[in-house]
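The instructor's notes for this session suggest beginning with a concrete chain rather than abstract definitions. Hand out the sequence below and ask the class to guess, before any prediction is shown, which regions might be ordered.
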Amino acid sequence: MFDGNSAIGFCMVLAIILFATKLLGLIFRKIGLPQVLGYIIAGILIGPALFGDLIGKHGFALIGFESGEYWSLLSLPDGSTLLSVFSKIGVLFLMFSTGLETNIKELRSAGLASTLIACVGVAVPMVLGILIALPFSEIGLGVTNVYNCVFIGAILTATSVAITVSVLKELGKINTKLGTTIVSAAVIDDVIGIVVLSVVSGMAKAGNTADLTGFDWFKAQWWGTVIMIIAFFVAAIGLGFGVSKLFRWLEKKWPDTHRLPVFSIVVCFFYSWAAEEIFGVADITGAFLAGIILSTAHRSSEYTDKKVEVNTYTMFAPVFFANIGISSIHFSGMSGMLLLFTLCAVILGLIGKIIGCGAVAKCFKYGWRESAIAGVGMMARGEVALIVTGKAMEVGLPGEFMIMTVFLILISSILTPILLKVLYNAKNTPPSEGEPAVGGEPAAEAVAEKSSEAVENG
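After discussion, reveal the predicted structure:
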C-alpha cells in the first residue's frame, strides 16, 4: 500500500482513478451504456463502498480505506479533501462546457412545442417525485424533511440528450420535425432544471437563522433567497453583455490562442464563486451561465470548448464521476425501505417524462406514436442528474439517495434506445417523419451531437 496523504501518493490515487474509469468506461461503451456509469462503477470498485462497507469494516479497497479507517486524502482546513476539489473543478467544467454548447438562437427559435414539452417535462416528474417521497419519513424524507422531498423531485427533472441524439442519428430521424423538437426540448429542460435546483438549494439553506445577522440573515430568509436569485441573474446577464463584447474583441486581436480558454476559465470560476458566495445560488448555475454568455462569442466559444473538453474529459470529469462512487455510495446504509423508495422513484421518474412530454406533444397534433416517441426521447437521464444529486447532497440530502440516481440513469439508459427503436420501426410511418427540419433546427442537432460525442468519446 502507499500513503494517500502525501503529495506523490495522491498522484498515485489519481492514476488509479483515471485507469479504472477509462477501463470501465470503455467496457460500458462496448455494451451500449453511457460511459459515466462505468466511471461511477469504477469509483465503487476502487473505493470503500463495496469491499469496505458491504463485505466488512476491515475489507480492502485500492484507495480511501486502510485498516478500517478512511484516508483523508490530503484534508483541507474546511473539512474537504483534495479529491473533492478535483471533483468540484470537474463538475464546474462540465456545466461550463454545457453552457458553451448551448445555442442561444436555437433556444429562441425552439418554438412553443419544445418549450412547453420542456416545462411539463420538468413539472410532472418533480411533482411525482415530491409526492412519492412524502410517505418515506423513515429514510429522511416525509413532511418533516420537505426540502429533501423537493430535492428528489428536482433530481427526477433532469434529461440527458446524448443517448436520445445517438439513437435518432442512427435511425436517420435527427433532422425531422419531431427529432428537432425533442432535442430542443431536452436542452431547455436542463436550463429549467438547473434554475429550479438553485431556487430549492437556496431556500433549503434558510433553516436555522438564529445565529445569523445582517446580510447573512437576509439571504437565509426564503424571500431573501428569491430576491438574491433574481439579483444574481440580473447582475450576471448585465455583466455578461460586457464580457461577450470583450471576448469578441479578444478573438479578433488574438484568434485561436491559449489566452482565450484561460480567460474563459477565469470567467467560469468567477461566476461560480459569485453565485455561491455572494448570491447564495448553486455554483454550477454560475458556471453554466458563464458558458451561455461566452457562447455568444461564436468562434472563440468553439475554440474554448474544445480546449476545456480536453482537460475535462482527460482528468477532471472522470475524477468527478468516480468520486460519486468513492464518497457518495455506501452500501452499509442500504435498507429495504430505501430500495423500495428507489424502485418507486425510478418508475415514477420514467413515467412522468413519458406522460408529461407525450401529452404536450399530442396537444400539438402529433399522433399517438409520435407523442410516445417524444415522451420516451425525454426519458433518458445522464450526467446532469448526477450533478443535481451531488449538489443536493451538499445542502442536506442524505448520501444514500445517490443510489436512486444511479439506478435511474442505468434503467433509463437501457430502456430509451430500445423503446425508441421499437416505436420508430412500427409500421405506417407518416411521410412527414422523413421531412427535414426547417428554420434553425439543424443547430439543435449540432449542439446535441457535440455534447453526445464529448461523453461517448471520453
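Then share the key points. Residues 65-70, 431-449 have pLDDT under 50 and may be disordered. The chain is about 70% helix and 0% strand.
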